[in-house]
Design goal:
564 residues; alpha+beta; five-stranded antiparallel sheet; globular; WD repeat; WD40_repeat_CS
Length: 564
Amino acid sequence: MLSSSTWVPRGFAKEFPDKYELDDEEMERINQLAQLEINDAKEEIEELQNNGNASSDSPEEEEDDKPKTAKLGDQFEIDDDLKEYDLEHYDDDDEETQGSRVTMLPGLSNDAEFHEDEDGDEAYITLPNEEETVQDKQESQIYPTDNLILSTRTEDDVSFLDIHIYDDGADDLLDPEVPEGHERPNALYVHHDLMLPAFPLAVEWINFKPNQPEGESDIGNFAAVGTFDPQIEIWNLDCMDKAFPDIILGEPSGAPSLKKKSKKTKKNKHITTHHIDAVLSLSHNRSYRNILASTSADTTVKLWDLNTATAARSFNQIHSGKNVSSSQWHSTEQAILLTGGYDSRVALTDVRIQDDSKTSKYWSINGDVENVKWVNESQFLAGNDQGGVYCFDIRTLDKPIWTLQAHDAGISSLDVNQYVPEMLATSAMGEKTVKLWKIPTYTEGEVLKNGPSMVMSRDFGVGNVLTTSFAPDIEVAGNIVIGGVNKGLKMFDFFSNKAVRSNFKNELSKLQKQAREEAKEKGKQSRIARKYDGNYTETMIQVDDVDGDVESEDEGGDDDIDIA
């Protein structure tokens, strides 16, 4: 199951990601994190022991009613009896025939070994040979033309953040930048993954590196992940094989566990330092890059300072004490945050205003708000739990510009192409199709004669669709990734579909002209400016699993509704 996704623009990822090294400083940080988890476990054990029923009449009932911790204790006693057999070392290698393992030296794998010559004089270490090292480095290399795609995956109750690589390929024979014989098709595969503590609900890319010394660049490549746990994890995407996040937002060091605190916290009490329920959405401020907004099922909206890893501000009445489901910062007005909640309202909040009662302007819709999304600087969309989509203009009255009954169930994803704002993709909970719409442009004061029109409706084979995300770079502007309850992330290029090209003919022409001009300024050639001739083949790429199995398939469109 893929529950959320987002892209990383080209050029931000490190060409050769770092290998995780466990030094003394990192070990101390891990010990502190582990101690917090141990304290949580102890509190839960004490709670179970206090709630244990010690008054059972029969031995059978007594055994059945034993607290889990008591049964755990019995298991520990059994384990103590087995210690004399030293079974845990049963399969250990014979130390007389092999060198001792190197396990505490940073940068060395557990495959490295100490050895001595026959005289016992010269000690040496066996390491991977140069060919293996070079091959490993090449396999992990990320090129400036590659995109990263982040998706959150859950299998068998274990969750991961998958970091995919998308290579747009170099199969254009007319491209002067591709040497003869070096053509290659596009490719999508998992580069590495990171284990998460709970079921993920939101992932957001962050281009900020916290706590950089003066004079050093603070441009980074990080991901924030929100889960059913109240904490937010910040991961460095340029480091592989990490077991713990770089930063945890909302983890009160040395304090009682958040789980226990959340049980005892009154619903009307405003906790300003951390969330006490699931994190439903995340939005990174692209102007004030040290600021991350989060919304939660605890009804609050919080603004986090990534430099201090603390909540700089917390709002609890923007959505009248209801769940806050979605959020997005304005693209140019840095202090304006768009949010949607289960109070059937969309809020536009100026976070600079200190009086909470005067910070927000509201628009109402039918049903709970599931998603909000900016179309441009003045218009935004809101999707509800009944499959409806509403478009508002912040300069006009409360009435929507247009409404659309896009689906028969709650909107699960709502995404607008940033290079073609007339292109809207929607999906719904419990539905297997992704729908592409052409939405009308709007000028203030204009009375629209026509609303949105559907261009395509397609089942991409991911089961019930949970997430969609358009690419952020102009050279892959038509690409969208799709994830659902079935295994595998899929990518589709909408412009590769003939009906889509026909409906967005003028928009595509404008896009290609812009791409050509931007490439010329950099002294390069634009691939998208030459794409999509009359014979262009429609293709789709799928990643089946984390081992990187990729399936490319031609799409005939027999199961689609394509409206030319």
